[in-house]
Design brief:
Chain B: It is a multi-pass membrane protein. Chain B: It comes from Paenibacillus baekrokdamisoli. Chain B: This is UPF0718 protein YcgR. The complex is a heterodimer of chains A (about 350) and B (about 350). Chain A has two domains: about 110 residues, no CATH class; about 150 residues, OB fold (Dihydrolipoamide Acetyltransferase, E2P), CATH 2.40.50. Chain A is built from 13 helices and seven strands. Chain A has a five-stranded mixed beta barrel with strand order 2-3-4-6-5. In chain A, strand 3 and strand 4 form a beta hairpin. Chain B has one domain. Chain B is built from 17 helices and two strands. Chain B has a two-stranded antiparallel sheet with strand order 1-2. In chain B, strand 1 and strand 2 form a beta hairpin. The chains are: A alpha/beta (about 350), B mainly alpha (about 350). The interface between A and B is large, with 100 and 105 residues.
Amino acid sequence: MEFEEERSYTFHYILRAVIMLGLTFYIVHLVKTDSLLYYIAPRMMIYVKIAALLLFVVAVYQGFLAVKSRFGENQEDCGCDHVPSRSIGVNMFIYSLFVFPLLLGFFLPDTVMGSDVASIKGMNLSATGMVKTAAAAALKSDNAKKNVSSTVNPFSVTAGDSALISPSTPAADQGTMASTGSSTKSLGTPLSAEDIKLQEMFKPDEYTEDYSKLALKLYKKKAPITIKEEGFMELLTAVDLYMDNFVGKKMIVSGFIYREDDMAPNQFVVSRLAMQCCSADSSPYGVVVESNKSKDFPKDTWVTITGTIGKTVYNKNTIMKLDAVKIEKIKASKTPYVYPYFDDFSNLVK
Amino acid sequence: MRSFGSQWGINLFFIALMSFMVVIFLHPSVFSDLSMPDLTLLRSFKTMFISIILEAFPFILFGVLVSSFLQIFVSEKWIRKLVPSNPLLGILFACVLGILFPVCECGLIPVVRRLIAKGMPLYVGVVFILVGPIVNPIVYAATYIAFRTRPEMVYARMGLALFVGLVIGLVLFTFVRKNQLKTSQSTLYSSVSTEDGKIEHQHKRSSSKITQMLEHAGSEFFEMGKYLMFGSIITAAIQAFVPRSDLVDIGQGAITSHVFMMGFAYILSLCSTSDAFVASSFVNTFSAGSLLTFMVFGPMLDLKGSLMLLSVFKTRFVLTLAFLIVITVSLGSFLIERFYL
């Protein structure tokens, strides 16, 4: 019996050591092949690497214990017996839970997630949801407080237009604009009529100051608005928030092609998956594109679209769309995801 | 005979596993060259599953190492001294512990199990498990970024978490007296405190405390990790196979949206550092109050976490705790929605 006990300990220690080493090697393999990016956001990677190191240390010690318990003294004196079950079946099941990720990891290729995941997670076509909601909610806050159900109704607060300046106003009367503008904003330097007009067009409310500054910068630039990988969601949000001002401007955006079942044949979405920490929390964000050549581009094709910003109604919501001028096939992005931008937004537009 | 047979089984299993590892280690490309059938869904499952466990590894390792450290180096006496004996102060103490230990529940549960076994009052430990994953600087920053334009969501989240912790802590203090740990204290904590408070651990052969710590960490990694793995498999399956839009259609309306968001948070089992980001993608379709429910309920009780809780506490206690969390979070969230958001 004594012998069996020893063997049982040895077996557990060896198996644990092997599994932990396997997990360590898997993480090292992911790092070496640059495929950790498929699973974890860059800012989390350092922790995963440290974890691999710790796993390795613990694994080596488990291996050492295996040798010790095989050839060393009796272990029975150790009061902290963590071997939970003597049943082979239960043990096999528990250890196979740990082997399972290794099998998956090494047998299935790493894949860039695309349309299939986007359709499961649900495409976000209006990046500005929260901003508009906030603005609208602020205007309606009194009503909302009196009547809870009105804020619960999903579409009662999405009519963001109430917070936006209608596109016809800037052109209407420059004189009144100038007077209201200069009285509210006294920045020391005299403002040109143009600046005042712009400030009026991109008037922030208390929630959207960062975005309005970004949008103003984008608007002033003569070149087409490029939605880069860095700050993808933030740039898209800024344009979307002041959508009416940007109608008619050119935009360049890259991503994979995604389609909903109820979209018109000439419509598709150019989308990117945005990740916070890991793939499980990623959400797809995208822009609707309209093009006659839509059918030449199957789903999950990576493209760069140059298009003119317009508006369309989809699922009862007014959203931004691009009328494609040029569609260019590209190679899939090296980084499969886009990440939230933590720095000052003004660095996004040079 | 049985043992002879099982020895063989073990050996074969082990040999197979070992050779598998060797092959992988020498030729990682062997497997990617295999022509796999196009299993897109399985692939998304893989991506979800691997990403969930990779994200959890640092936290769970940190958790088991801290737990092992406590086991070996910290005396019961010291912990009893550290935790205020006044229940209110004790609960407040637990609430702010999260600021010092900014870890998700995967990391906290092993630590708290050890702390309770070492004499931390149950209500203090539980409040730490509930509030710690929310009221800490990392989650504060993440929520702030996700709701950049609505800072009141951040305050509401922190406030509600503290409120729930306070209420549940007081309830537990008043009504629960018995030991609720699953494993008896003697097996969990085998050190003997001698008169002068010195620790005398019973590993006779172990040479140094550091190696004892590593031994504990190894065992505990598997003990806690099995629940994590199992929970992650289910979570990844739901994430990969169940369309969100189907779910979202169920959960509209003043009260159902709160109920739905609790269930949603439960099955998604996101880390508290990233759930605010997911919540913010639902702003168009759900009320601020129900998103608050999502962000407070999720870190306190989710599929992955409740499996881990079941490994630590008695089943009855976990069920009671779950019930308390559901009631307090929904009540609190309702009140905040009505008067603050």
